[in-house]
Amino acid sequence: MDRSRGPLIRRRSAVALLAAPTAFLAAFFLWPVANIVGEGLRGEGVWDLSGVGEVLRDAELRQVAWFTLWQAAVSTALTLALGLPCAQVLARYEFRGRRLVQALVVVPFVLPTVVVGAAFVALLGPRSPIGLHLQGSASAIVLAHAFFNLAVVVRTVGGLWEGLDPRTEEAARTLGASRWRAFNAVTRPALRPAVASAAAITFLFTFSSFGVVRLLGGGSRTTLEVEIYRQTAELLNLPVAAILALLQLLAVAAMLIVQDRLERRRAGAAVALAPPRRRRPRRLGERLWVGANLAFLAVFLGLPLATLVERSFRTGDGHGLSAWRALAGNDPRSRLFVSPLEALANSVRFAAVATVLAVLLGGLAAAALARSRGPIARTVDGLLLVPLGTSAVTVGFGFLVALDDPLDLRASPWLVPIAQAVIALPFVVRTMTPVLRSIDPRLHEAAAVLGASPGRAWRAVDLPLVGRAVLVAAAFAFAISLGEFGATTVIARADAPTVPIVIARLLGRPGTINAGQAYALSTMLMLLTAGAVLLVDRWRPRGAARGGWV
Prior knowledge:
Elements: H1 6-41, H2 50-57, H3 59-92, H4 98-110, H5 113-124, H6 138-161, H7 166-174, H8 179-207, H9 211-216, H10 224-234, H11 238-269, H12 284-312, E1 314-315, E2 318-319, H13 322-326, H14 340-371, H15 375-389, H16 392-402, H17 415-437, H18 441-449, H19 454-483, H20 488-491, H21 499-507, H22 512-539
Antiparallel strand pairs: 1-2
C-alpha cells in the first residue's frame, strides 16, 4: 500500500463515518433549535430583532441573567474548593477501598438532576433532619450543584495529579523549600490547566442547570434555563423564550471555545505523565488528612442520598412501606394517567432505545475523531459538545415546533428517546474517542501485510479494547437518558410520562404519600444509576485517558 496515501484515506474515512452523526444532529438538534429561535425572532413574515433590545432592557430578565451567572460562578468556586483536596487524596494515597471511593464519587454526577433536587428537598426542605430549611434559597442550589459536579473536579484534576511524579516536589523540599512553597513552585503550575478545564466544565453545567434549580429554587430563584421553560410553557411567550435561548446559546458557545482551549492546554501538560506513584499515609498528619477527606465525602455525598432513602419509608406517624406499595397503583386524584411503576417502565424502555442510538452514532463520531487530528477534528469535537450546554427545554420545544414536516413526529413515541440520544451523544463520544486514539494504527498495517482483511483486523486489534469502551459508553448513555428531564418534560405524552416527570409532579403536590412515592422513585433511579457507575468502573478500559470528566 502507498504510504503517502494513508492520511488521505484516513481523512476520507473520517468524513464518511461522520455522515450519520452529522445528519442526526442536523435533523434533531440544529434544525429544532434554529426553528424555535427563528419563530421567536420572526415578526409578521420578516425578521424582527427589536425584541432583543426589549429583553435586554427588562430589569426582571436582567436579574435572571445575573443570578444565572452568579450562581454558576459561586457553584464552580465551591466545587473546586471541596473537590481539590479530595482529588489530592485519591491521587496521592493508597488505602483500602480507594477504587470503590473513586467510583462512588462519580455516582452524583450521573444521577438524574431531578433525583439530586429531590434529595436536597428532603435534606433542606421544611422537615429537614439537620434543622436547615434552605429550600428556595441560593445556598441550596449552590450546594446541590457542588454535590452534582464534585466528580468533574476529582476526575479531571485527580487524573493529572496522580501522573505527576511526587519526587519532584520532594526534591524541592530537600533543597529547603517548605511544603507549601514546594507545592506552589512545582505542583500548582502543572495542575493549572486541569483546574481551569474542570472549572470551565463545571461552570457550563451549572450555567445551564434546570432540574436542580426548578425543584430547589421555589419559584423565587430562577435561571435562564428555568425562565425559558416558564416563558414558553406557562406564559406562552415564545418570542421572549426564543431570545433567551439565543442568548444562552451564544454564552454556551463562548464557554465551549474557552473550554476547548483549556482542554488543549491540559492535554499538552499531560504529555509528561508518569505511572501513578501512590503510597499509604505514614505520618499521623497524613492519616488525619486522608481520614478527614473520606469523612467529608461520606457526609457530603452520603447524607442527601441517605435522607432520600429514609424519606421514602416515612409515613405520617413513623416508617413503613406504604409509599413503596403505592407505586404499583394510580390514585385518580394524582392526574398522572399511569402508575409510577408504569412510568419507570417507560423510562427504561426510552433509555434503552436512546442508548442504542447514542452508542451507534457516537461510536461512528468517535471513530472519525480518532482517525483525524488538527483544527478540523477539534472543531467537530467542540460542536458535538454543544448539546450539553444548550437549553434542553429549547430542544424539546423545538421538536414540537419543527418536526411536523415532511413527517409529523410530534406524537411519535420515538421523540423522547431521540431527544435523550441527542443529550447522551457527547458523553459517548468523550468516552470512546480516547480509547480509539490509543490504538496504534501500525497494528492495522501489520495485520494487512499478513493478509488479514479489514474486518478481521478490526476484530483482532480493535474489538478487545473497543468492546469495553462500548459497554462503558452504553452505561453512561443509559444513566443519562434514564434521568433526562429538560427536553422530556416538554415532549413526553401525558399517557407516557417518564420517572423524572412523575417525581417532579409528586413533589409539587401536598401529602405525605405523594412525597413518599417521589422519594421512592428517586431511590430506584439512584440505585439504577449507581449500578451503572460501578459497572463502568469495572469495565473501563486501561487505554482510557486519565483526567477526563467521564
